[in-house]
Amino acid sequence: MAGKRKSNAGRPTVMTPETIKKLEEAFALGCTDGEACFYADIAKPTLYKYQNEHPEFIDRKESLKERPVLLARKAVVDAILSGEMQGNKIAFDYLTKRKRDEFADRVESTGKDGGPQEVVHTMDLGALKRAMGDGGDEK
Predict the structure, then answer these.
(1) Per-residue confidence (pLDDT) for residue 136, from 0 to 100
(2) Labelling 53: which of 12, 68, 125, 134 has CA 20 to 30 A away?
(3) Is residue 58 within 8 Å of 51, Cβ to Cβ?
(4) pTM score, two decimals?
(5) Higher pLDDT, 127 or 53
(6) Which among 84, 59, 87, 88 has a CA at the least distance from the CA of 73?
(7) Measuring CA to CA, how many Å separate 137 from each of 121, 124, 128, 132, 133?
């Protein structure tokens, strides 16, 4: 049957301009895919299907998810420049959680000459017995 056209009948799309706007709002707040879908009242598979059909939306989503980080960076820099770093502790704390590799404290420890650490456990049996009430006089 040549010339048969696909029917437009069926279930209407839930990916309306309003739904996309809600997703973008949530992503701009740094929400996960699940959180954004909950906010927009759609299922995650619906989002992923839309992304497969509109790959440009993936880049938009990832860009929007970086917005809170950018705003926190700006708040920290503004605080440094104004001399009011204490007032923007929340922004800095946010950065230490979201961008650990750049902002979080990092502690590295090694053993002698950069080698592995040596762990030695010692036990004072007399003290252990005294603590347990056995007198503890070791002979």
Answers:
(1) 46
(2) 68
(3) yes
(4) 0.58
(5) 53
(6) 88
(7) 21, 11, 11, 12, 11
pLDDT confidence tier of residue 72, bands split at 50, 70 and 90: confident
Q: Rounded to a whole number, what is the distance in angstroms from the first to the last CA of the chain? A: 102
Contact between 14 and 46 (Cβ < 8 Å) = yes
Question: In angstroms, rounded to a whole number, what is the distance separating the alpha carbons of residues 41 and 43?
Answer: 7
Write a three-state SS string for the chain: CCCCCCCCCCCCCCCCHHHHHHHHHHHHCCCCHHHHHHHHCCCHHHHHHHHHHCCHHHHHHHHHHCHHHHHHHHHHHHHHHHCCHHHHHHHHHHHHHHCHHHHCCCCCCCCHHHCCCCCCCCCCHHHHHHHHCCCCCCC
